[in-house]
Design brief:
The protein is mostly helical and 174 residues long. It has one domain: dinb family like domain (Four Helix Bundle (Hemerythrin (Met), subunit A)). Helix content is 56%, strand content 3%. It contains 6 helices and 2 strands. A hairpin with a 5-residue loop joins strand 1 and strand 2. Helix 1 packs parallel to helix 6, helix 3 runs parallel beside helix 4 and helix 3 runs antiparallel to helix 6. The longest helix has 29 residues. The mean pLDDT is 95.
């Protein structure tokens, strides 16, 4: 336990995960592929049957709201990148992360990333959190603890966005 990250980071992650799980539970593929507006980030199926996500050219509100498919892809993207760049080869790029293609596979992939993240953090000590050695994405030259905290915030943000989109979907079909 002496090598575990500070308990407040773990508790914060557990809270973020509960929110994420709540909004992923029962999620249907139809909800994922529903578009809350004519404009907004989404996923596209290519001729090889893989799904790839739109990438924003800016972050203005006029870009429109993202679909749940895009939001779930976004979790897969940033978590894959954080894992690879902090604990792997650091060669993974956005184009290497497809959308899983359906809600069931989304849940499996996000759960896989969660399990991998937890396993990676099990070997992290306080000195590692203060060090910049593992901080290669999305930051550089900052303590690795900043990346751990960022994952917690990003997960919470994406979970809240998925929940909001699910509320919109639920009333749009009435």
């Amino acid at each position: 336990m002496a090598d575990a990250p500070p308990s407040y980071l773990i508790r914060q992650f557990e809270t973020a995960w509960k929110l994420t799980s709540y909004h992923l539970d029962g999620l249907a593929t139809e909800e994922c592929l529903w578009r809350p507006a004519r404009a907004g980030l989404h996923v596209q199926q290519r001729s090889d049957a893989t799904w790839h996500a739109d990438w924003p050219t800016h972050e203005g509100y006029d870009i429109g709201p993202p679909s749940i498919a895009w939001l779930t892809w976004h979790i897969c993207f940033w978590w894959s990148m954080a894992l690879d760049h902090s604990f792997g080869s650091g060669t993974r790029a956005r184009e290497d992360v497809p959308w899983p293609g359906n809600a069931s596979d989304v849940r499996k992939e996000i759960d896989r990333l969660k399990t991998a993240w937890q396993a990676a953090l099990d070997g992290i000590a306080d000195d590692d959190l203060r060090s910049t050695d593992r901080t290669r994405w999305p930051f550089k030259d900052r303590p690795f603890g900043d990346v751990v905290a960022w994952v917690n915030v990003e997960l919470t943000k994406n979970a809240a966005e998925i929940g909001y989109a699910r509320f919109l979907y639920a009333v749009s079909t009435r």
